[in-house]
Write a structure and sequence with these properties.
By secondary structure, this protein is an alpha/beta fold. The protein folds into two domains: 97 residues, lambda repressor-like DNA-binding domains (434 Repressor (Amino-terminal Domain), Orthogonal Bundle); 195 residues, Endonuclease, Chain A, CATH 3.30.870. The protein has a six-stranded mixed sheet with strand order 3-2-1-4-5-6, with helices on both faces. Strand 5 and strand 6 form a beta hairpin. Helix 3 packs across helix 4 and helix 5 runs antiparallel to helix 6. The relative contact order is 0.12.
Length: 306
Amino acid sequence: MPSESPRVSRLEPYLHRTEPAPTLLKMLVGVQLAGIREDAGLAQEQAARAVGFSPAKLSRIEAGKGRRPPTEGDVRALLEFYKTEDYESSVLLQLLRRAGEPGWWQRFDKRLIPEWFDRLVGLQEAANSIRTFEIQYVPGLLQTPAYTRAVVERGLPSAPEREVSRRVELRTKRGQLLQRADAPQLWAIVDESVLLRVLGSREIMREQLEHLIAMAQLPHVTVQVVPLDVTDASAPAIPVTYLRFGGLDLPDIVYLEHMRSATFLEDRDDTEQYRVALDQLADDALSPRDSLIRLRETARQRYGAE
């Protein structure tokens, strides 16, 4: 008979997801294996040694990291060592197999998607809520294709046209996440300079602001603007994305993007600092209602929107 374990009952719906979600499923398998190990009273090093793994390997499995999920043989070895109940083992192994199905973004050329970016897209697809702060560009999930092209051409001036087009296609498809029936809550805070900096042309900026205005009126999207006249705003020096996963025993994750790499923070002390910083920044920013007014004024006065 199926187990009545709350752990298993929370996992079962993920066996029937329409879209592959490899990043989420790898994390779910990992966190459940860690929970089973902890329930058995075993330290990570003890369990790793018992099944012939290095502690680093077991740590990676439990963290759900890497482009590919762990092998079925490795997960079976752990489940057998932990003497996991048959039905729970069956559900975890089914999740593991689904974790091997590529996400839509993994069908793009790997040169466009380094491992750190692969993980970001997968985490955004899995998140229950996304908070983001941008100081230079409109957040990627809210960009129009023409604005994205301007961003890519500015950042990669020597890139061939095919690469530029594929990058635009990739980012545009990412934005479709917000159109899904199960779309995450998005809370985006942008510096007002983002609205005033002309990328591509004024026509492109007008279209982008009109898109922002439309998106900001969706029930699951909140946009706030930090006005230029707030001189003491507690803004981080770099863009920040804060991801939560809602009731799945998964840690909050902070994503910090650099020039050619990125940092993912999962330790609670680290992520809590960024949560507090984003809360303070939201207090410094215009309210969502006043931000919408500012967006409309800027679109009309600066870019000639009707």
